[in-house]
Amino acid sequence: MIDQLLDQGKLSQDEKDYLNVLGALVYEYEQQQEPIPDIYGVELLKSLIEDNELRQKDLVSIFKTESIVSDILNGKRELTKRHIEELAKFFHVSTAVFFPRNSIRK
After folding, report:
1. pLDDT tens digits, residue range 53-73?
2. Residue 77: its pLDDT value, please?
3. What is the pLDDT of residues 1-51, one digit of tens each?
4. H/E element holding 16?
5. Residue 11 and residue 6: Cα distance in Å, rounded?
6. Residue 40, Ramachandran bin (φ over 0: left; ψ between -120 and 50: alpha; else beta)
7. What does the DSSP assignment read for 33-101?
8. How deeply is 51 buried, as exposed, middle or buried, from its count of CB atoms within 10 A (0-12, 13-18, 19+)?
9. Best label site of 24, 37, 45, 55, fewest CB within 10 Å?
């Protein structure tokens, strides 16, 4: 409903009031809910693997061997810049999702 009102462009005063009430209700609801954790790096990779019903062998094209995939997923190795770039292409996401939201990268 909020999107429909916003898409209308010009709103009557009643519609503006209604939009404000809806916005306040949504905000209040979101404040009471469990926050979505900020996952990134290996935890994000694990989630993407699970969500896409993949196996470690499905990522060999990126990591070269299953043992490297296993080492990364088990914290024995870290993701490299090349891994992150290839994972982003593979999963059709930005490389930025593999880093904490508040990190500064140059």
Report:
1. 999 999 999 999 999 999 999
2. 97
3. 777 877 887 889 998 888 889 888 888 887 777 665 689 999 999 999 999
4. helix 13-32
5. 8
6. beta
7. SPPPP---HHHHHHHHHHHTT--GGGGHHHHSSHHHHHHHHTTSS---HHHHHHHHHHHT--GGGGS-T
8. exposed
9. 37
- Please answer whether residues 79 and 42 qualify as being in contact, where contact means their C-beta atoms are separated by less than 8 angstroms: yes
- Residue 59 burial class via C-beta count within 10 angstroms: exposed 0-12, middle 13-18, buried 19 and up: buried
Cα atoms in the Cβ-side hemisphere of radius 13 Å centred on 42: 13
Q: How far is CA 19 from the centre of its chain?
A: 28
Going by the DSSP 8-state scheme, the letter that residue 102 receives in this structure is T
Give the rounded percent of residues in the chain with a pLDDT score beyond 90. 54
DSSP label at residue 9: -
pLDDT in the model for residue 35: 63
Burial of 41: CB neighbours in 10 Å, binned 0-12, 13-18, 19+: middle
